[in-house]
Amino acid sequence: MDLSLTFRSPSPFLLPKSKPSTLSIPLISLKPSPHRLTVAAAAGNMKMIEGVSDELNSIASQNLDYAAARRRVRSAFIPVHQQLDHLLFKMAPTGVRTEEWIERNSKGLEIFFRRWMPEPGVKIKGVVCFCHGYGDTCTFFFEGIARFIAASGYGVYAIDHPGFGLSEGLHGYIYSFDELADNVIEQYAKIKERPEVRGLPCFILGQSMGGAVTLKVHFKDPHGWDGIILVAPMCKIADDVTPSKPVLNFLTFLSKVMPTAKLVPQKDLAELMFRDPRKKKMAVYNVICYDDRVRLRTAVELLNATKEIEEQVDKVSSPLLILHGAADKVTDPVVSQFLYENASSKDKTLKLYEEGYHCILEGEPDDRILTVLNDIISWLDARC
Fold first, then answer.
1. Which residues are catalytic?
2. Alpha-carbon distance 360 to 144, whole Å?
3. How confident is the model over 52-96, as pLDDT tens digits?
4. Which of 290, 296, 297 is nearest to 64 (CA)?
5. Alpha helices in the chain (DSSP H)
6. What gap in Å lies between CA 13 and CA 10, rounded to an integer?
7. Which domains does the chain have, with CATH numbers?
8. Is the pTM of this model over 0.85?
């Protein structure tokens, strides 16, 4: 069975109160074969990536529901990523040591880890652990971000959330937002005990949906971190796009009946995420990101998570740095102002970047990206 819902709101998964959704029921398979790695049958369904070979386009068009396929696609595109004309790739500091590995979590899922360390001989000041945003991975744009931070004397660690990037789980599917947070706590508890960083100040960096994950982690483990950095965090839903209670109840019901079914997309968010048009074109090379329709249970979990966070922002007590583009239309900078004003942290900083869109670390002009990176590093240096 297949479900499609038409949403008319700035968010890819929110329903406005004033305009009820249109419900239609076409047909899709809810149980894709775990062995299906075939290219889309109809050429019109394939997303052709300019500047790469037909073979790579064929590889990128595989069904990415399962981690094995995502890992193969990412491996094939590594040389392409290294050639991209983007500040984060072409000017990333050299000498940074990198490592990646996979471990099973307590739920039995394979979790992908990546590490960036300063070059040999550089004293490590602290540890930065990363939580990526919805649909994303720690293996594309964050590669360059991590290198800049590591070159400044920090050990940087990242994981792909279950269901995203190179970790196991149905692609784009969040069964439980609490489980996402629990997995972050579990995995980074192990990182903190690694001999190269044991005893050092530890900070957690969350971007977009990863900011919501980070806040949930903080609520569950309020003394687990020496500081929190949030980049364009998803932590409150604007009132004018919050679904009405009947609509939310209906979505919740559907999410129990057909949790992995997908919603019809509202719009291409790339226009709202990247201010620099040249960098926006490069987003297509993030070939293992989840950019399909939002799955029903995922949408409900995101909605519920932001509601819970909104009700608890006064419990945010850790040293806090919030960074947000002032022109962001994906996550509202007014919400970051709300978080800043209501957090109980005695050490808190809010930086709003004029004209900045959602992806202030990836999609802005080069000078702005460097400004944001240096703001992060300066904040870390002042607390280590």
1. 208, 328, 358
2. 14
3. 999 999 999 999 999 999 999 999 999 999 899 999 998 888 899
4. 290
5. 54-60, 67-82, 87-90, 141-151, 177-192, 209-220, 245-257, 270-273, 277-282, 296-310, 333-342, 366-381
6. 9
7. 67-381 (3.40.50.1820)
8. yes
